[in-house]
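Quick one, C-alpha cells below. Sequence please?
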C-alpha cells in the first residue's frame, strides 16, 4: 500500500495539472502493488505452540525435541497442522531418525508418512535383505506392493540381490510369493528376475512346468517354457507325440510340429501307411506339401512302394491325386513308376488316352507307352498334323509304324 506522503504527492500532481486523474489512479495502484507484503513470522517449536495445533502438551514437548534433532527449530503453524493431519507423531519422528532419516526438510518427513512408509516396514525390508535401499527406493517398493515376504521368497528361489526396480517390476507383473515358491519347488532353478516376470506374463504355471518334466523334457529354461506356451506345446501334446513314435524331441522340434499342424494322429496315420522312420522335418514336409495317407495307399495299390518323403512330395507337388492313381488300376500296367505318373499329369494325359494307347499297343512296356502318349500330346494342335490323326475327343490318335 502507498504511504500517506506518496498519496499526497500524487494528489498535488493532479491538482497542478501535471497528470490526469486517471493517471493518478493508475499511479496509486502501481505504488500499492510494489509495496512488499510482510512475511509471516515462524514460530519457535515449543510445547505450547505445538499443543495449540492439536497435540497434547506432552506430545508437543516430545515432538519439539525430535524435530530439533533434525535441525528444525522454527516452523509455521500450517506445518504443525500438516503434521497433525497426517499423524506425524513424536514416536514416528523418533523411529525414522533412528533408522537413518536425517533430512531437515519437514515436507519430506510428511511425505514419508503420506506414502505409508512405516518404521516397521523399513526394519522388516532391511531384515529381509534390502539393507542398502534409501528412503526413496523404499517408497517405490512400498508403492508397488513389495513385501518382506516377497523379498524372502525371491531369496529362496535363488535370487539373492535384486534391486528395487527389479522388485517393483516383478510385483507389478503379478509375481507372488506363492508363485515363486511353486516355481522353485517345480524344479526351475537359476532364474533371474526377468525370467520370473517372463514366466508369469506368459502363463507358465508350476503345473505346466511339472507336466513338461513328467513328459520327459527336464532341461527347460524360462525361454524354452515361454516358447512352448506361446506355440501351444503342452505336456499332453508331448506325451502323445512320444507315444506315436517320435523320441528325443527338443523344444524347437515341438514348436515346429505344433506350428505346422503336425499332430500325433497325423504321425500315427503316416506310420500306419508305411512311413516309419520319420523325423520332425519329414513330418513337417509331409503336412506342408499335402502328402496324405490316401495318396500313399493309392500308390501302393499300383505297386509303387517304398517311396521316401521327397518322392512323395514330388508327386503331390505335381498334382497327383489318389483318384487319378486309382483310375489306372484297371489298365494293369506293369512296372509303372512315379516318374511315369508325374509325366502323365504334367502333360494332362487322361486315363482314356492311356487306355486307347494300351489297347492299340499292348506289347509296349509301360515306359514306352507313356513316352508314346506324351509325344502324341506334344504334337496335338500342330497345324501340320492331318485332321485324320486327331482323337475323336479332341486329344489325338496314335499311329505307330
Amino acid at each position: 500500500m502507498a504511504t500517506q506522503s506518496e498519496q499526497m504527492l500524487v494528489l498535488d500532481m493532479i491538482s497542478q495539472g501535471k497528470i490526469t486523474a486517471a493517471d493518478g489512479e493508475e499511479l496509486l495502484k502501481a505504488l500499492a502493488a510494489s509495496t512488499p507484503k510482510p512475511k509471516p513470522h515462524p514460530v519457535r517449536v515449543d510445547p505450547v505452540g505445538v499443543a495449540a495445533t492439536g497435540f497434547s502438551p506432552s506430545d508437543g514437548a516430545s515432538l519439539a525435541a525430535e524435530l530439533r534433532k533434525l535441525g528444525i527449530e522454527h516452523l509455521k503453524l500450517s506445518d504443525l497442522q500438516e503434521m497433525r493431519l497426517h499423524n506425524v507423531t513424536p514416536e514416528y519422528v523418533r523411529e525414522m531418525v533412528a533408522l537413518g532419516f536425517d533430512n531437515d526438510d519437514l515436507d519430506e518427513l510428511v511425505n514419508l508418512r503420506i506414502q505409508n512408509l512405516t518404521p516397521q516396514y523399513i526394519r522388516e525390508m532391511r531384515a529381509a535383505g534390502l539393507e542398502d535401499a534409501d528412503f526413496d527406493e523404499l517408497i517405490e517398493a512400498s508403492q508397488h506392493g513389495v513385501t518382506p515376504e516377497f523379498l524372502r521368497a525371491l531369496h529362496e528361489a535363488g535370487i539373492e540381490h535384486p534391486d528395487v526396480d527389479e522388485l517393483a517390476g516383478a510385483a507389478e507383473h503379478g509375481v507372488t510369493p506363492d508363485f515363486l515358491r511353486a516355481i522353485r519347488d517345480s524344479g526351475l532353478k537359476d532364474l533371474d528376475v526377468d525370467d520370473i516376470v517372463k514366466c508369469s506374463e506368459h502363463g507358465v504355471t508350476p503345473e505346466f512346468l511339472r507336466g513338461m518334466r513328467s513328459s520327459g523334457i527336464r532341461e527347460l529354461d524360462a525361454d524354452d517354457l515361454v516358447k512352448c506356451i506361446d506355440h501351444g506345446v503342452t505336456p499332453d501334446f508331448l506325451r502323445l507325440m512320444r507315444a506315436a513314435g517320435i523320441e528325443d524331441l527338443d523344444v524347437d522340434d515341438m514348436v515346429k510340429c505344433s506350428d505346422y499342424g503336425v499332430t500325433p494322429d497325423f504321425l500315427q496315420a503316416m506310420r500306419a501307411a508305411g512311413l516309419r522312420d520319420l523325423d520332425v522335418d519329414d513330418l513337417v514336409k509331409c503336412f506342408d506339401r499335402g502328402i496324405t495317407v490316401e495318396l500313399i495307399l493309392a500308390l501302393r495299390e499300383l505297386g509303387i512302394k517304398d517311396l521316401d518323403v521327397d518322392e512323395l512330395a514330388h508327386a503331390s507337388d505335381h498334382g497327383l491325386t489318389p483318384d487319378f492313381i486309382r483310375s489306372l488300376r484297371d489298365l494293369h500296367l506293369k512296372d509303372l513308376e512315379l516318374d511315369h505318373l508325374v509325366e502323365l499329369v504334367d502333360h494332362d494325359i487322361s486315363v482314356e488316352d492311356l487306355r486307347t494307347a494300351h489297347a492299340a499297343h499292348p506289347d509296349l512296356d509301360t515306359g514306352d507307352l507313356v513316352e508314346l502318349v506324351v509325344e502324341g500330346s506334344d504334337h496335338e494342335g500342330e497345324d501340320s498334323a492331318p485332321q485324320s490323326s486327331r482323337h475323336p475327343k479332341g486329344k489325338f490318335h496314335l499311329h505307330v509304324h
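Residues 383-401 have pLDDT under 50 and may be disordered. The radius of gyration is 46 Å.
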